[in-house]
């Protein structure tokens, strides 16, 4: 007697386990005409008499093998166009699933360790609460940075070094380092330590998913620009701009600032109509007045309702809004970095990293025979960009992790946990890189398809270029600016 005859369970078919019927129907073009389209011109109307009779067609009734392709039906390449978009959405959904599960598990671990996850929210990488940070040369600052102070003294006494010492004195420094008076945050680190491997794996997976999904652009590029034009007017004014899952992914990974001005949080009379978001914008921009200005800009963006609001159905807008208010990966990573270096160790670390970098830069200038001779001003730019990191302890902390500095998380993280932090940072950088690669691939693909024509969402190439623009601050266009900055700060170990 075969096992199947004795097994009382119903036979599970591959098709039911993988949910093939749902997938097969999901790659069908939408059966019902969108509200803005004329149902008479919607190919499905001629195909499905039930639709013509006014009954909405259930997706399950669609057999894509019988799609009306050709004259009066779907343009052949429109089916490819829709399928490729749908596969992107399936991958975006899975990336979000991995990251959501990670944050849920982190939340549980923190709660068990007596740490509130809400305390981690809203990294302030871009803004430290100091409108005009003090300069290193201001009275009292150098005394608190002994390594830098030693270097400045050496440069002052060197004929070709004095100009560099003057530059250093002009650079900004954080007036107070987070946790100057506090000990490191051992509870946070201890609660996170067992979860770090899982976090690195989940973020790495999401990065791989986004990179793999991006490979679908060459498939869609098999469609010629003229065959795209055959059906393009049918999708107007819909646009990928309305992909709420892409929005969720970019915000969830850390690009919240990019969208601060996408939400109308006050009505025309200045009364606040979304208190939570308004407070969030004020937190990031540094003032309530700046939050009001953001809201005003948003209301001009899209016929009084904000471009993002107009592009999304209510339920999806609510999800995007939730991502703005919720914990992002940048929040989590920055909290981890700050916890690993808080206390008086933070200032010492910043001091060491800055001094090592400036010494390196000076020695390079000497080797090249350029010391004190920065006619083009580019050398000074490099010194300034290193100096700027002195107001971002997250970058300094990430540098310490990458350099294997045992002072990171001292007392709370062992070597294995520190290595897991390094893996997590690498995975985050990979995710950020994957999102940027997605943007570049999409932008180049769009140029091939429609050149400089306006997009159906009213943007086009100038908008897409601006999403990656080096002119914009890196905390707007990158999920993990501190991790990118740390790559400029690593120096070779000195023996
Ligand atoms: C022929 C194919 C495509 C063309 C011509 C095109 C064109 C454009 C244009 C011009 C924009 C800027 C907004 C606008 O003016 O509409 C845009 C945005 C966008 N598109 Fe596409 N796109 C295509 C395919 C895709 C695909 C396959 C996806 C995958 C999901 C996608 C996702 C997006 C997203 C997420 C945005 C918003 C980007 C952002 O705001 O940073 N697009 N697209």
Produce the secondary structure layout.
Blueprint: H1 3-6, H2 14-17, H3 20-26, H4 43-47, H5 49-52, H6 76-112, H7 146-156, H8 162-170, H9 186-192, H10 196-214, H11 217-220, H12 225-235, H13 244-253, H14 275-285, H15 288-301, H16 307-311, H17 314-325, H18 329-341, H19 344-367, H20 378-388, H21 393-402, H22 415-450, H23 461-466, H24 474-477, H25 481-486
Helix pairs in contact: 6-10, 6-13, 7-8, 7-19, 10-22, 13-17, 14-15, 18-21, 19-21
The site of protoporphyrin IX containing FE has 23 residues, from α6, α22 and α23.
Annotation keywords:
495 residues; binds protoporphyrin IX containing FE; mainly alpha
> Percent range for helical residues?
55-70%
Distance between the termini: 74 Å
Low-confidence stretches: none
Looking at the structure, what is the overall shape? globular
Describe this structure in words.
This protein has 25 helices and no strands. The protein has helices at residues 3-6, 14-17, 20-26, 43-47, 49-52, 76-112, 146-156, 162-170, 186-192, 196-214, 217-220, 225-235, 244-253, 275-285, 288-301, 307-311, 314-325, 329-341, 344-367, 378-388, 393-402, 415-450, 461-466, 474-477, 481-486. Among the domains are: 23-72, no CATH class; 99-196 and 330-486, no CATH class. It has 495 residues and is mostly helical. Bound molecules: protoporphyrin IX containing FE. Protoporphyrin IX containing FE (HEM) binds next to helix 6, helix 22 and helix 23.
